[in-house]
Structures are given as structure tokens and as C-alpha cells.
Amino acid sequence: MSDSRKTLRALAEARRAALLPGAFNALSARLIEDLGFEAVYITGAGVTNMSSNSPDQGFMGLAEISRAHAAHPRRGAHPLIVDADTGFGNAVNVYHAVRQLERAGADCVQLEDQDRPSAAATSTARTWWTPRRCWARSAPPSMPGDSGLLVMARRRCRGVRLRGGGARGPLRRGRRRHPVRRGADRGRPGACAARPAGQAAADEPALGAKMPVLPREELATAGYGFVLYANAALQAAVAGMTRALTQLRERGELAEDPALVAPFAERQRLVNKPAWDELEQRYASR
Q1: Other beta carbons within 10 Å of 115
Q2: N or C: which end of the chain has fewer CB within 10 A?
Q3: pLDDT tens for residues 122-180?
């Protein structure tokens, strides 16, 4: 088992509500690492929004999330969780997707139990597929022995049109077909705003998009292992670009205000330009 997978497993078992921001490209992933967060979450919604200006409605495929994953320059034992959507098809596609992402170095693959194509967490236009196809570990490790790959099962539990069961159907279904009992390592209740604060199950270590914003300390006390802020970086980037470009449009110039735009030197540091310059000089001198 790799060091990064050991680190991620330890984070999950510590149940101290580790904050996991979502990365939508390699630069945002590098920034998340630099700021000291303990793991990176590659968000499918963010990749879709930023790469094709499309909503999170199943337009992203395995190729797109694999490219976003591969572009991230891994450093040391920093864990990486990858959003694999619904597995991009049927049970055979789930098998293939998990194997591909594992080979590419994912430490954890998140799968959810919606019909393909999936709908965004804020949407109510969802139906469900058989959860055992998504939650069971249908894709064994691609390397000999126990690779330590984690599987995070994401289940919706509110605001969903279920095939039978009425408004409370998703909650009953979640209890009856719990993802951890179906073979996943961790369960994530996506868009679950119905559970009162402090009543989190200990084996559901992440929060969904419609959960109320609660203090990290309260979430840790409730037994959550991870708290995903999947789109915080993306929405902050959009807000920052809007402010900077609005000033440029209105004033005809853009001051290098650190509160408005990152300094040029910081941009070069994040993309590791000094190391590339050193390498270029080393070979140029021969």
C-alpha cells in the first residue's frame, strides 16, 4: 500500500472532519497542497464547469476526469480522491473506471448511485440505479496484493424522485442498503439536509452540497472523517476573476493589488518555474 493511501486511511479512521477542498485543474490542486490541506479532491463538477463551460449533468466522461487527475503533479504522500461520477455506465464500466483511475494513482475513488447521466447535487431531477452495482467492490486491485485503494460511496438522501417509496424513500433505502455494508470503505450522504446536526452516523464521513454549514469541531464530534468543499476553489476563482476583470473594464487598467490579483512571482512559483529554469541552465551549460 502506498504512503498516500495509508495517510488517507488514517485520516478517515481519525474521524476529525478533515477539510478536503475540490480541485478543478492542476494549478488549483497545487494551491490546495501548498496551503496545507491534508488531501485533494478532484471534483467532477469543477472539471466539467471549467473545461467545457457545461453544467454538472453527466457531460464529463472517464477521459476528462482521467486527464484532470493525470495533470496533477503528485508530491510525496499527499492523498488524492477522484470523483468518478456514476462509474460512467453499467457495472462493467464501473469496473473499468475504477481500474483505470487506480492505475493512474488515485488513492480513493468516489462513486454515486444515480442513473446515467447523473444530475448535479442541487438538482431534484434524479432517479436511482441498483446501488450494489456502484457500492460493491466490483473492480479488484490492478496490482498484485492489497493496493489499499479506498472506495467512497455517495448516496443521495433528500430531494430525489425515487422509483417508489415517496418522500421518505431515500432515507429508508439508505438505511436498508447502506454503502459500507455493500462493500465500500466510506459512505458519503450527498445533498442530505434532513439529518439534524449532531446525528451523523460514524460511518458516513462526508457532507453533501445541501448540508447546513456547520463548524468543523461539531462535525468532528459527530464522527465525520471528511468534509468536502468540492467547489469552494472554483467559486472563489470565478468571484476573483469577476472582480479583477470588472476593474479592468471600468478603469481601463488593472493595478497589481495582491488582494485582487496574485503577484506574477507567486504564479511562477506555483507552476514550479524556478526548477524548470534551473534544469534549462544545467543542460544549456553542457
Answers
A1: 13
A2: C
A3: 554 444 444 444 444 545 545 445 678 998 887 765 444 444 444 344 445 544 544 44
